[in-house]
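Lab notebook, bench 4. Still working through the backlog of constructs that have no structural model yet. Next entry is a single chain of 401 residues. Request: give me the structure tokens for it.
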Amino acid sequence: MNSLPPGVEIHGKRVRVYFPYDGKKCREPLPGEPTPDTIAYAGRLVELIHHEINTGTFNYARHFPNSKRLIENTLNHYLDIWLEIKKQRTAASTYNGYEGMAQRYIKPKFGHRQADQVDYIDIENWISNDLDKLASKTIKETLAILSQVYDLYQKRNPGSHNPTTGINIRLPDMPDPEVWNRSEIDTILTTPPAVNMVQELNLFKFMLWTGPRVSEAIALAWEDVDLSAGVVHFKRARVRGPFKATKTRRSTREVELLAPALEALKAQQKLTAKLPPISIDVTERDNRTIRTEKVRFVFHNSNTDRIHCSDRTLREAWIAHLKKAGVRYLGLGQCRHTFASQMLSIEMPLEWVAKQLGHSSTAMLHKHYSKWIKADAYDMVARANKRLNFSGRGKSGKKQS
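Model written out:
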């Protein structure tokens, strides 16, 4: 046994073959003790592997089905690594979305496959046949996950391919936000609340005339409110349980209160301002640092006297109130869009509206809120005529300033 065939070595009490593949030196043990017959077999196997590699017919799994290398080369392996990274670096709600799409759409189709054996056509067929019932946005997000997994795979396997390259999922044009007009807002807020939802109606009023995200409104504390100055500070949010910092640095903001919003907070002051503070943990935007706060929350559930965990605890009350008011149903998130549209319809400065909403620039306003609520908009032609001292009149019945 002093002279071994090329590509064969003794490792402990086993015979091992080695060969170059995909730019790496691969080593695989063979069953049986290092007898002359085993060593001879190993030599023939190495020759066959070299031949198959040279002719492009080599199949790693056929020769070494139990190889550790195969397990570590499955898409599942890299997908799990990617998810673990995201778990440490993203908010819990964001991670849950990633994990859900990975478990539902990617793992069942490709998880067991060797990462380097999935190609462009496999991905296209998957999108066309398996994902065809999904919304374009969901397909695009799922494909983005798979692309990032392959980016990670390429870090460990330089020169490997990313089969998602060149695949582009087109999204439909974004529809204009659905909002309530002024008449509908007034109806919503003047309809008497059910006995068990007085606090919820105060919350709805506050949201319609302040424009926060639902997650920001339910996390508002009295420590963030200055009634005498007429301002609130949005410092945290709550999405499906945990408290976290606001969405962006710009989202941590001071907001000036319109009269109806101030009225809603004054009504709440009588109900919750004197409650004892509770201790909460707030995860910072790095998703690692946690700060502890002692706060008194402004809005509570009228039925349980507990604070709201998410918009889900508000949805039933919201649906019931809109039905009672006879106003068409739109989700609670549309309160934010309605506020923005109302402010734009009376020509409030774009910079001020952007600041109130926590946008970094007015570009988002142009993107999402360019549509005016016609029933509430001023007659621009009449305004121009008046300011230029023209004799022309605007449309009958329209307001002028």
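Notes after review: Residues 136-156 form the longest helix (21 residues). The beta strands are 8-11, 14-21, 24-30, 225-226, 231-234, 236-238, 243-245, 253-256, 278-283, 290-295. Flag for follow-up if needed.
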